[in-house]
């Protein structure tokens, strides 16, 4: 048989064999067999050296044609097999779009965050800035610049988690007073800010105390700010958050960084003022401390206390949340129990 006939035979046989392949592996094997270095075509080509110079290019070009046709046929078959596999896969993976979907669980702001958001909205509406400060704080800002030098007895009012001698977990948001006064340019106008955040104290947990809780600091510094401005602002907050159901009382108090100082109490939600375990039988729950900023605090922050003065307050949103929703134990807010937290869902 001539080499050309042998090549024709190989072509026909190859095309025939391709028809019966149905898997990618099988097809690949056949491709290697037909076109590979050890395949029959290569073998035929090796025999070309025995041909006459006239025959050689004719057979050579025919051999190339055979290779090309086989390659084309292999590609076409590969395409067919891929298509078939895809159809089978699609058939298997059919989805029933009429089935009801699985509802995705939606998150929700924590109830205390909801209270903070409300407070922020209220104060933003009155032209205050909302700022945040570090929870790991310097003793200098947390105490010293708040008129509480080292060894001052009033440091005992806030039992502290110290990290080093000079670094601590802030016990209050009041350090933000010093931090903002230091930076404020009073030639550009008054300073009005609130600063919400988490604070830490070595308090023993009980129904109204947690060792980690929230505060919102408030500070207004300008010329001619009076105690009446403070009282009006605090009453506005109480009524905005609780409506008129509750009474607010201001009690003289002591803070080293304000003079005079007050504490604000709100009628106990649990007993309506009669006295119960939640309010320690006083009928009132203390929600904030406040007062007129002490001249020493102004001076230490570089503010001229002969010209400027103002008020500051530190309120406890955890206590606000207890009052607003009648929660009788502050510890519930920190247990991460979804059954409890979902009661305050905003999803309606
Ligand atoms: C202060 O922390 C002062 N920095 C507040 C202040 C700011 C006074 C500016 C004057 C000027 P006091 O320790 O009372 O004060 O805490 C303020 C509020 O935080 C309390 O009224 C209460 O609502 C809340 N609070 C205090 N301790 C706890 C606690 N352990 N758990 C939950 N809330 C607390």
TrEMBL record:
Cellular component terms (Gene Ontology): cytoplasm
NCBIfam families: pheS
One Pfam family it belongs to: Phe_tRNA-synt_N
Record key words, sorted: Aminoacyl-tRNA synthetase, ATP-binding, Cytoplasm, Ligase, Magnesium, Metal-binding, Nucleotide-binding, Protein biosynthesis
Co-factor(s): Mg(2+)
EC numbers: 6.1.1.20
Similarity-based family: Belongs to the class-II aminoacyl-tRNA synthetase family. Phe-tRNA synthetase alpha subunit type 1 subfamily.
Reaction(s) catalysed (UniProt annotation): tRNA(Phe) + L-phenylalanine + ATP = L-phenylalanyl-tRNA(Phe) + AMP + diphosphate + H(+)
Recorded name of the encoding gene: pheS
GO molecular function: ATP binding; catalytic activity, acting on a protein; magnesium ion binding; phenylalanine-tRNA ligase activity; transferase activity; tRNA binding
Example GO biological process: phenylalanyl-tRNA aminoacylation
Main location: cytoplasm
InterPro entries: aa-tRNA-synth_II, aa-tRNA-synth_II/BPL/LPL, Phe-tRNA-synth_IIc_asu, Phe-tRNA_ligase_II_N, Phe_tRNA_ligase_alpha1_bac, Phenylalanyl-tRNA_Synthase, tRNA-bd_arm
HAMAP family, sorted: Phe_tRNA_synth_alpha1
Subunit structure, as described in the record: Tetramer of two alpha and two beta subunits.
Subcellular location: Cytoplasm
Residues the record lists as binding Mg(2+): 259
CC cofactor note: Binds 2 magnesium ions per tetramer.
Residue ranges constituting the Aminoacyl-transfer RNA synthetases class-II family profile domain according to the UniProt record: 111-323
Lineage summary: Bacteria, Bacillati, Bacillota, Bacilli, Lactobacillales
Superkingdom of source: Bacteria
Protein name, UniProt field: Phenylalanine--tRNA ligase alpha subunit
């Amino acid at each position: 048989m001539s080499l050309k006939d042998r090549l024709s035979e190989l072509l026909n046989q190859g095309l025939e064999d391709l028809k019966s392949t149905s898997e990618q592996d099988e097809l690949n094997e056949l491709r290697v067999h037909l076109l590979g270095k050890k395949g029959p075509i290569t073998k035929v080509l090796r025999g070309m050296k025995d041909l006459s110079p006239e025959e050689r290019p004719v057979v050579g070009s025919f051999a190339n044609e055979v290779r090309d046709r086989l390659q084309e046929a292999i590609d076409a078959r590969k395409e067919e097999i891929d298509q078939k596999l895809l159809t089978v896969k699609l058939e298997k993976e059919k989805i029933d779009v009429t089935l009801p979907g699985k509802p995705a669980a939606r998150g929700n702001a924590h109830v205390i965050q909801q209270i903070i958001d409300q407070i922020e909205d209220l104060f933003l509406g009155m032209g205050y800035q909302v700022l945040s400060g570090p929870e790991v704080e310097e003793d200098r800002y947390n105490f010293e610049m708040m008129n509480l030098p080292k060894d001052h007895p009033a440091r005992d009012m806030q039992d502290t988690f110290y990290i080093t001698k000079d670094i601590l977990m802030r016990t209050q948001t009041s350090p933000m007073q010093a931090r903002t006064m230091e930076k404020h340019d009073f030639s550009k106008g008054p300073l009005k800010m609130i600063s919400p955040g988490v604070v830490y104290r070595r308090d023993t947990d009980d129904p109204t105390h947690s060792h980690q809780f929230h505060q919102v600091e408030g500070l207004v510094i300008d010329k001619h700010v009076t105690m009446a401005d403070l009282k009006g602002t605090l009453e506005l907050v109480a009524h905005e958050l609780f409506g008129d159901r509750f009474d607010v009382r201001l009690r003289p108090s002591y803070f080293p960084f304000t003079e005079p100082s007050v504490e604000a109490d709100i009628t106990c939600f649990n007993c309506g003022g009669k006295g119960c375990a939640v309010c320690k039988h006083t009928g009132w729950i203390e929600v904030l401390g406040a007062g007129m900023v002490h001249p020493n605090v102004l001076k230490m922050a570089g503010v001229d206390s002969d010209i400027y003065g103002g008020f500051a307050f530190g309120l406890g949103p955890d206590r606000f949340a207890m009052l607003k929703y009648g929660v009788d134990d502050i510890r519930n807010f920190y247990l991460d129990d979804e059954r409890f937290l979902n009661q305050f869902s905003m999803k309606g």
